[in-house]
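Margin note: ligand = fe (iii) ion.
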Amino acid sequence: MTKPTDFAYFSEEHSAEVVNARIDAEVADPRLASVAASLTRHLHAFIKEVEPSHEEWLAGIRFLTETGHMSSEWRQEFILLSDILGVSMLVDAINSRRPSGATENTILGPFYVKNPPTLPNGSTICQDGKGEPCLVHGVVRDTDGKPIAGALVDVWQTNDDGFYDVQQKNVQPEMNMRGAFRTDAAGCYSFRTAKPRYYPIPADGPVGQLLGRLGRHPNRAAHIHAIISADGYDTVITHIFEPGCRFLREDAVFGVKESLVGTFVRHDGPELAATNGFDGAASYLEVEVDFVLATASGRSAMVHQG
Ligand code: BEZ
Ligand code: FE
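Resulting structure:
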């Protein structure tokens, strides 16, 4: 005789327990078993809270199906969904806990290209010459304040039209707004670029439609991406945010952290601009940012593509 409490038969009350009772602990990998059981518990709790109609449940299935269909080698709509729900930032926060004083991580985004050209310090990454001239420089240090020589500062951003080079193949020069810079013996790096601007995340798919239906905009606060790496230290994946951007407090993917907002100081005068490599410019912006790396924890940074 089956007792009502042994979870063999389905009931609304014990729905999650009924499903989880089928996991065979002798066969299943323990981590997978625990993740699957937790997923089932939370999913069933969500359904019990929302009580969807059959039509609503089907609309959800259709949304996920379209999200899959939109994904390709070049477009990862599921990661975009995770981004706009704040899940990507939460996973990153859990995996990037660092000692205080170390530079904070933020979202990688889908437009990173591995192995950009390594350029001499002071070079420009702005091959199309568009936008307001900007000099970015600083020191890479450890958490004791000691400069780190030979660290790699890998940077990328959109051009002044708000597009990454990979979104505009044959329009922008290849590797426009990308470059890697090695710190010198004093831990210093520098590069020239254009002031970053806000731009929309890809919004022509189901995730963009969802944002629209929720009354949310798709814009990312203006930023320069940076990955800083050095032997013996945890790699940092981060941004430098432009403080005057109107979307700073409402970034579409929740990537802004207060410590990552830079200071952009305008220097007027063509001579000063020319001295700093901006011939013909009336002024330029100076952005001084030091990056602080924590000693290697053994956790690896997630530098994926797509
Ligand atoms: C980006 O900053 O490049 C980005 C991040 C998340 C989604 C889309 C773009
Ligand atoms: Fe970006």
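The CA atoms of residues 99 and 294 lie 7 Å apart.
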